[in-house]
Amino acid sequence: MRKVITGNHAAAYGAKLSRPGVIAAYPITPQTTVVEYIADFIADGELDCKFIKVESEHSAMSACISAQNTGVRSFTASSAHGLALMHEMLMWAAAARLPIVMVNINRAMGPPWSIWADHQDSIAQRDTGWMQIYCENNQEVLDTTIMSYRVSESSDILMPSMLTEDAFYLSHTVEPVDIPDQELVDEFLPSYEPRYKLDVDEPYGFGSLVMPDNFLEFRYLMAKAYDTAKERIVEVDREFEKTFGRSYGGLVEHYRTEDADYLLVASGTNSSTTREVVDQLRNEGEKVGMARVRVFRPFPVDDVRALAKGVKAIGVIDRTYTYGAFGPFYTEILAALYGQEERPLLKNYLVGIGGRDVRPRDIRDVYKNLVKVSREGLDEEMTWHGLVGPGGDA
Amino acid sequence: MIEIRFHGRGGQGAVIASRLLAEAAFIEGKDVQAFPFFGVERRGAPVTAFTKVDDRPIRVKSMIYEPDYVIVLDTALLEYINVGEGLKDDGRILINAPAAMAAEYKKKLGATVDVVDGTGIALEHGLGSRESPIVNTSMVGAFAKTGVVSIESVAEAVKRQVKRKVEPNIQAARDAFDMVEMEVAE
Q1: Which residue of B has its CA nearest to A362?
Q2: Which class in CATH covers the domain with range A252-384?
Q3: Cis peptide before A190 (omega within 30 of 0)
Q4: Which residue, among B62, B55, B5, has the nearest Cα to B32 in the 3D structure?
Q5: Quick check: A317 and A351 in contact, CB under 8 A?
Q6: CB contact under 8 A, B60 and A175
Q7: Below-70 pLDDT ranges, chain B
Q8: In what order do the strands lie in the sheet with A131-134?
């Protein structure tokens, strides 16, 4: 069934179709409607699930952790300051190997207060151990919620997943979305049957102290799980296509990258607008393509290295800035390419920070500048696109 | 792509209007996008909302800067918002106003202007109050006269999206469709 719905509604449908036993969430703009839609589903008897009301996001994640520890699939959603308040428990969920799935609505961190799109909130949780998938449209939000449970719950992975939607550009924008049949989702996503859980009949200890002669190995096992996840995300994406007819390119989606001299790297909704601009430029005879880095953790190092082959220059578009360094996607790509024999020119563009509207002409400007620096040499390593006032053009 | 911008005030239903129009176009097999200007919602404050309609997938995620159509739910906005900003040369503005006002607004805005008494129609069908009429279904019904969507699709969209007073809303849309007089573009 196709319906015209917002990204937040799509997230709620994704959660509902995945049949979680527990949902705990605390409302925050622009995530609030996810919680409202889920409350509707439960009130209307469409979703058989315990919704735990909590007094904070820290408690929301704690409730999900507890549920998941008892072998119950859980779901939550948050944004910005709410996500930041979860930080400690995000770490716990990942290292306790609890395959929780959450949707984060990407919003700028204050001050100054902003409720608009920016990737700083989730990027700041980069090192918590959660997989991170940046979605481009509402359909992908729904589909990725279901896929994420499949990946996360794999017995050789057992790591939580955070998928993201750009504030307002997805969360409050309606688009046609196909809502898959429950029976198909049930076939694709079997019920959650963890090998280890809190069970009085079969007791195990969880989260205990380990001495220095064991801790290293716990971290090593997480690293191995992340390696497996890189393959599994691609496999699950392919399987999803077989059942539902849609796929998202696994870790990195290539768009018209064949024979491209120039590559634009984008994530989230910026990639949607970039897709349109790439088509326009191709029609004008420009040899340009886009690589959408969909998965930020685990970072697709091999894919990025493969992409760089035969390319003159890569422009990395980031929707946030990490204080004192560069855009986060740029930093990762830069690191991945160091030591490679073939290293194209690389430049970072900060575009759409704090919800600044990103128009096709902005992406065209990025492309024009990339071609220019490719010919004339780098002017600066990172450009704050659209800067006005002090230090800017106007 | 056809791009439509709505101007209203909080409480008049501009955001729902943008979604109704998207739903109507979706019913006709189009790809659609609708969203409010990403602001902070307050009752009475100016609200802008957008609808995009296309035969092929819509990928540009930005707001609308050069609309094909503008729909104004409240004439009070004309005093302090340039509703015609960026309007394409062959664009049209549909205003919620009595028929007698058409010439004045056309002169003021320097564009092709159509008017329909959305407030009168809404009140006749018991939608909102005199102080706060809910004119969204009337205005979307009148907009169907452009042919971007059919009035039958608008009626179906209202059925799908509106939860209360469904029949009065459909009737308001139909009345507005019948009453609006579209100026023939020069």
Answers
A1: B62
A2: alpha beta
A3: no
A4: B55
A5: yes
A6: no
A7: 38-42, 183-186
A8: A50-53, A22-25, A74-79, A101-106, A161-166, A131-134, A295-297
Q: What is the pLDDT, as a whole number, of residue A393? A: 56
Sort out which chain B residues have CB atoms less than 8 A from A115's CB and list them. Answer: 38, 40
φ, ψ dihedrals at B8, nearest 5°: -150, -170
The reply to whether A110 touches chain B by the CB within 8 Å rule is no
For chain A, residues with pLDDT lower than 50 are: 394
Q: Cβ contacts (< 8 Å) between B33 and chain A: which residues?
A: 173-175
| A252-384 and A2-244 share a CATH fold | yes
CA quadruple A230, A231, A237, A240: dihedral sign: negative
CA distance B150 to B170: 13
ipTM of the complex: 0.94
Q: Which domains are present in chain B?
A: 2-179 (3.40.920.10)
Domain ranges of chain A: 2-244, 252-384
Question: What is the distance between the alpha carbons of residues B24 and A343, in angstroms, rounded to a whole number?
Answer: 50
Exposed / middle / buried, residue A328 (Cβ in 10 Å: 0-12, 13-18, 19+): buried
Predicted confidence at residue B12, as pLDDT, reads 87
Distance from B76 to chain A by nearest Cα, in Å?
A: 27
Residue-wise pLDDT tens digits, B110-136: 999 999 999 999 999 999 999 889 999
Point out the residue among B35, B59, B65 whose CB comes nearest to the CB of A173. B35
Kindly indicate whether the domain formed by A2-244 is annotated with CATH number 2.60.40.10. no
Q: Which residues of A touch B49 (CB under 8 A)?
A: none
**Torsion sign, CA atoms B68, B73, B75, B80:** negative
